[in-house]
Design brief:
six-stranded antiparallel sheet, globular
Length: about 450
């Protein structure tokens, strides 16, 4: 009997079988034919447990309403990537019954699953006199997702249904430790995953398939001190699996490639950015980072990061570097007199970064678009002037808008920028670390 796992943009995951018995096992949501699940979907993948008839599967596969895209295969996995961002509305993935196995194994019943693409919102951390709150802003309305004396970090699941929040909590001994809480976005009660006086958590990020997390943790030492920070793989049940670095070396700011095959992290003990292949267990030294978290291209082949300057002097270049995993591509972006920060890859051909200039007569901070092919500047959008700072920015799932926060003295303003028109809209509530919420 031939089995298939169907995944919609690492947002929706179900399992169904070909043959005499038909089963549906939901991983991240609970869809059945006719149900609609709020989600942001970029691709649909079908993984077969035996070799499929590739041509037959492609011919049978369809999306309703029609959504143009392209097929590609990764072994026994068929991936259908949409050619453009899906409009808001309901969609249906259909695989009709037929002989879809390479040996003509039959699927006896039609398979269909429905998902809904909705307008994304965003989240941010808002500070008040009583503590901090994680606030969702969607369709002009605001609601609080989580509250704590201090929110250390948070990460939104790929389907937007859960937020992993690292909160500072006091232990019985009076010390402060970072613990992990899982917060559903539908208003259900939060669940405490990690709360221990012996573990102090920092940064957190999700796996692309939504089944696990990466967290940075420090362990209490026998003498009462605290160990070095290490990135750990964590199941969403709260069970630690293993540190990312098998030798136990310090590791910070982990990030997952979109295809889930690689991890990138900072190795502070030797000042390197490491790319780790989860399949081959090969570690690649990408270069020397300046800080921040490495960002991946949509095709998972390029990494962008804040790089240590290669030149010396009173005002050395503070560049962004983009490099391919196989080192066939390696380019630095930035010139003397400016600092490049927080890069993101708009697509496989364009890098975006914050350009902060210093000295007299400069424009402040701009969002710069540059070509990976030849390094030329394609466009620049002014974000903040003078000494005002852009604290953090995020690109929406459709790669059409940016949310960012400007700090001017003690005042913060959060804005949404339309990349096509250049128009920006200030938000009534402002906070730190704004991130798009599917």
């Amino acid at each position: 009997m031939l089995g298939i796992t169907a995944v919609c943009a690492v947002v929706l995951a179900v399992t169904f079988a070909l043959g005499d018995q038909r089963r549906i096992a939901v991983v991240l949501a609970s869809p059945s034919e006719g149900d609609a699940v709020p989600s942001t979907v970029r691709e649909v993948a079908l993984t077969f447990d035996e070799e499929p008839d590739r041509g037959g599967v492609e011919e049978a596969f369809r999306i309703e309403p029609e959504a143009p895209g392209a097929f590609r295969w990764r072994g026994r996995t068929l991936v259908y990537t949409f050619g453009r961002s899906l409009a808001v509305g309901d969609y249906r993935v259909v695989v009709p019954a037929g002989n879809l196995g390479r040996g003509s194994e039959p699927m006896l019943e039609d398979f269909a699953v429905t998902f809904r693409v909705r307008e994304p919102g965003f989240a941010m951390i808002v500070t008040s006199e009583t503590g901090q709150a994680l606030v969702e802003v969607r369709d002009g309305e605001q609601r609080t997702l989580a509250q704590a004396p201090r929110i250390i970090d948070y990460a939104i699941s790929p389907d937007g249904t859960q937020v992993a929040v690292v909160v500072a909590a006091e232990t019985d001994g009076g010390s402060t430790r970072g613990g992990l809480v899982m917060v559903p976005t539908d208003g259900s009660p939060p669940q405490s995953l990690v709360q221990s006086p012996d573990i102090n958590l920092g940064g957190v990020t999700w796996a692309p398939d939504g089944t696990s997390l990466l967290v940075v943790r420090r362990d209490t030492l026998p003498g009462g001190g605290e160990g070095v920070p290490r990135a750990w793989l964590l199941r969403i049940t709260g069970e630690f699996i293993a540190p990312v670095d098998p030798d136990g070396n310090p590791s910070l700011n982990p990030s997952w490639s979109p295809d889930g095959q690689h991890l990138a992290y900072l190795s502070p003990s030797d000042g390197r950015l490491i790319a780790y292949n989860l399949s081959t267990q090969v570690f690649t030294n990408m270069g020397q980072p300046r800080g921040g978290r490495a960002e991946w291209s949509p095709n998972s082949q390029l990494i962008a990061w804040e790089s240590v300057p290669r030149t010396e002097g009173s005002n050395p270049i503070q560049p962004v570097r983009v490099k391919s995993l196989d080192s066939s591509y390696d380019r630095t972006f930035g010139v003397e007199g400016e600092t490049r920060l927080a890069p993101k890859l708009l697509d496989n051909d364009t890098v975006l970064s914050l350009r902060r200039q210093v000295g007299s007569g400069v424009r402040g901070t701009e969002l710069v678009f540059e070509s990976l092919e030849d390094g030329r500047q394609l466009r620049a959008i002014f974000l903040a002037g003078g000494t005002d700072l852009v604290l953090e920015w995020d690109l929406d799932p459709a790669r059409e808008r940016v949310v960012y926060t400007v700090q001017s003295g003690q005042q913060r303003t959060t804005l949404v920028l339309n990349l096509e028109s250049g128009e920006r809209e200030p938000i009534d509530v402002s906070g730190d670390r704004p991130r798009w919420l599917p």
